[in-house]
Task: inverse folding
């Protein structure tokens, strides 16, 4: 059984259908890319999977449980991590404190009054930072980090609840080409080593076709193609709607 099964998702706004009957599955350890032109429905689809938007119709089955319409905090506790197009970190805290906060939330220790939070779970936080190549910057304030380092920190935070499924919304947006390659190579290695499913949206086609094992293409809220990178790249409709000359043989 697939870890994630999305079935006939629908969402409309003021009579306009943003997502129309989207269905797909995702296995553990798999990297799946969701691509398409602006306005295709990618962000709406992501938001429904994460609980930020309730679908009008359809199901989101995570390991046999329908999570459609549950609040994000419930979905997070069921083992779904998330990174955002615009990084979401606490600028007033240090790098390690950001990860500690995520760990404390996962262990339900945010209300622990007996010890200062900065002393709790620091070792585990440092281990996660080491995993993403940020341990040396553990005590630096987030506000002064380069954008690529913020993306790595956000990935460490997303790993704090040991997710079975990681949702990444344009993970390399705003990064230099070399940083994009390194971040997605790290994500692919984490997917393999943790047997973690990864669903990501991305506009950089070099990133998509290098790291995705399968690709789904949306246009006007509907899936117009899905398959291996080679199959999607050769699809004439995908070339016409989105890839243009990039997808030509």
Result:
């Amino acid at each position: 059984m697939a870890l994630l099964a999305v079935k006939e998702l629908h969402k409309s706004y003021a009579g306009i259908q943003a997502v129309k009957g989207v269905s797909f599955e995702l296995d553990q350890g798999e990297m799946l890319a969701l691509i398409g032109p602006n306005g295709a429905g990618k962000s709406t689809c992501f938001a429904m999977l994460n609980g930020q938007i309730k679908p009008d119709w359809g199901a989101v089955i995570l390991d046999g449980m329908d999570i459609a319409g549950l609040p994000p905090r419930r979905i997070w506790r069921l083992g779904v991590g998330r990174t955002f197009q615009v990084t979401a970190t606490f600028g007033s805290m240090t790098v390690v404190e950001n990860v500690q906060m995520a760990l404390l939330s996962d262990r339900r220790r945010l209300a622990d009054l007996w010890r200062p939070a900065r002393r709790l779970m620091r070792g585990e936080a440092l281990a996660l930072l080491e995993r993403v190549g940020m341990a040396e910057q553990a005590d630096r304030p987030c506000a002064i980090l380069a954008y690529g380092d913020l993306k790595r920190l956000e990935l460490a935070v997303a790993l704090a609840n040991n997710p079975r499924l990681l949702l990444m919304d344009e993970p390399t947006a705003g990064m230099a080409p070399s940083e994009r390659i390194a971040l997605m190579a790290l994500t692919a290695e984490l997917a393999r080593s943790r047997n973690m499913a990864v669903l990501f949206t991305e506009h950089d086609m070099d990133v998509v076709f290098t790291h995705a094992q399968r690709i789904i293409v949306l246009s006007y809220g509907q899936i117009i193609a899905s398959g291996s990178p080679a199959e999607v790249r050769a699809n004439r409709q995908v070339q016409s709607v989105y890839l243009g000359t990039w997808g030509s043989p």
Summary: The longest strand covers residues 16-26. The chain has a mean pLDDT of 89. The CA atoms of residues 94 and 141 lie 4 Å apart.
